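Q: Predict the bound structure with flavin-adenine dinucleotide.
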Amino acid sequence: MIPASLDFDTAVVGAGVVGVAAGAALAATGRSVVVFETRDGIAQIGTSRNSEVIHAGIYYPKQSLKATLCRRGSDLLYARCEARRVGHKRIGKLIVATCDEEIPKLEALLSAARENDVPDISMIDAAEIARLEPDVAGVAALHSRATGIVDAHGLCLSYLAEMEEHGGTLLVDHKVTVLNREPDHWRVVVRTRAGEGDEQTLRCHEVVNAAGLEADQVAKRAGVDIDAAGYRIYLCKGDYFALAPGADVKLKQLVYPVGSASGAGLGVHATLDLAGRVRFGPDAHYVSDIDYQVDGTKASAFADAAARYLPAMRAEWLTPDFAGIRSKLAAEGSGFRDFVVGEESDKGLPGLVSCVGIESPGLTASGAIAERVVGLLDAR
Ligand SMILES: Cc1cc2nc3c(=O)[nH]c(=O)nc-3n(C[C@H](O)[C@H](O)[C@H](O)COP(=O)(O)OP(=O)(O)OC[C@H]3O[C@@H](n4cnc5c(N)ncnc54)[C@H](O)[C@@H]3O)c2cc1C
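A: Predicted complex:
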């Protein structure tokens, strides 16, 4: 139920990692905050379907939001995990070149990493790869010791706890169906049961759109011309396959191929979770609908991709695990698009902050995105 007073300083749309991080940061400033979530719990969409990697910030163009918010977010994330006892591990990552022709790609990534002030990264040779990861074959690799993994749900619970400590309110099973800019406030209409149930209206001064895959539709509802703004979201699916526990491949850290990274993804890589389970993925293919089925027939293609850097890999060790869907601003085949984290006064929508296209490294960057949201609203 919505509390008796229907007035809040700030309403946040969506309780994925971006929404709860923004809710925590906004509540900590003394604002009264409500976070609305369509689902019956937090972090059930993008935030629960990813690699849970704490990225170091290697891949993104210098001074892009992806680069700066990832770097800052990674520092904030490690500090938060320590302070609030969120499960995490700084396990490190290898980006592997499997032939001499791929070494220039590693060198380009190393210089991008240096431009982005990524700490603890260096080039290593085949002997060092073999020492660190005996099952991995490569002629050279980048070794990023600042890359880690995190319990994404635990991270969201830590943001939620912080928000509630500062008096913020989470309302699940409340879909935001209307966002109207009135002369001196926002009118927000919410409905239960995925938008089909009871309706309530409240007023607030500020709105944060953190609706993930639906952020373009929420922006449209708020009055943004999403094509003119470049906010249309394209769905890009990534499947994961789990490595059977008995498989004869052991890994201690994350392993990525340098060769197959594309604009849409980083190539089929090996990730570990906090329990030590290995999975491969995600691949990247644009889709028109949201469907989380994993196509089991892709096991041999995944095994072939992984065998380039893990020669012992066999398809029968792989079983379909889960899929995630990236909220991309870049249409298929088009170039780099940055995160949008912007205040919309210039569109005649003061007090609205749009977080759109928050694909990877959005989990890593969540704390820094939240800082930026607060900064934009404070600067109005
Ligand atoms: C395959 C894949 C792998 C990834 N790997 C990594 C990684 O290793 N590291 C990393 O840093 N990042 C990674 N990411 C990116 C990361 O998962 C996302 O950036 C992050 O989870 C986005 O969070 P969000 O809060 O914006 O969206 P979501 O988690 O999707 O949350 C949005 C929420 O808004 C709610 N909502 C939508 N519309 C409304 C409405 N009208 N009213 C109320 N609620 C609404 C939804 O129900 C949802 O809960 C990966 C992403 C994918 C797809």
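A: Residues 65-84 form the longest helix (20 residues).
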